[in-house]
Design a protein that fits this description.
Blueprint lengths: L5 H16 L23 H17 L1 H10 L10 H13 L14 H12 L7 E2 L5 E2 L1
Antiparallel strand pairs: 1-2
Helix pairs in contact: 1-2, 1-4, 3-4, 3-5
Length: about 140
C-alpha cells in the first residue's frame, strides 16, 4: 500500500477551503460565496478524486520548493492554518488567477514564489459548481 505523507491531507484541506470562500454560484441565491452554505465535505466523489489527483501531482512535482515554502511562509488569519494548508490555499488561488497566491505571500522569497506560480500554470483554471443534489463538482 502506498501511504501518502501527512502534509498531503493539509494541502488538500487548504485547497478546498480556498476554493469554497473564493467561489460563488449564480444559482445559489441564499449565499454570496459557497463557504456560506457548503464545507469541504460537500464535494462529490469525482470532485474529490480530481482535487486529490491535482494536489498530489503538484506536491510531487514541486516537493523541494514546497518544503522551503512551508519553512518560510508567514500567514495571518483568525484561523490557524498549517503551512501546507496555506500552500494548498495558494495553489487554488494561483492556478485560478486570483489576485493573491504563491507570488505575494509574506516571508516567501520572490524566486520561490515565482517558481511555484509558474508551476501552477500547468494545471490551468478550474471552477466549482453546485449539483442538483447540493453536492459540489469541479
Amino acid at each position: 500500500m502506498n501511504k501518502k505523507p501527512n502534509y498531503y491531507k493539509d494541502f488538500i484541506i487548504g485547497y478546498k477551503i480556498a476554493s469554497l470562500w473564493s467561489s460563488n454560484d449564480p444559482d445559489q441565491t441564499d449565499c454570496e460565496f459557497l463557504d456560506e452554505k457548503f464545507d469541504i465535505t460537500d464535494f462529490d466523489d469525482d470532485a474529490n478524486q480530481t482535487i486529490e489527483t491535482d494536489c498530489i501531482k503538484f506536491l510531487q512535482a514541486n516537493h523541494d520548493d514546497l518544503v522551503k515554502y512551508a519553512e518560510d511562509v508567514s500567514y495571518n488569519s483568525e484561523e490557524s492554518l498549517s503551512p501546507y494548508e496555506v500552500a494548498g490555499h495558494d495553489f487554488w488561488l494561483t492556478r485560478n488567477g486570483h489576485g493573491a497566491g504563491f507570488w505575494d505571500r509574506n516571508g516567501i522569497d520572490d524566486d520561490l514564489g515565482n517558481r511555484l506560480t509558474e508551476a501552477c500554470k500547468v494545471f490551468g483554471e478550474c471552477w466549482i459548481y453546485v449539483n442538483d443534489d447540493q453536492t459540489l463538482s469541479i
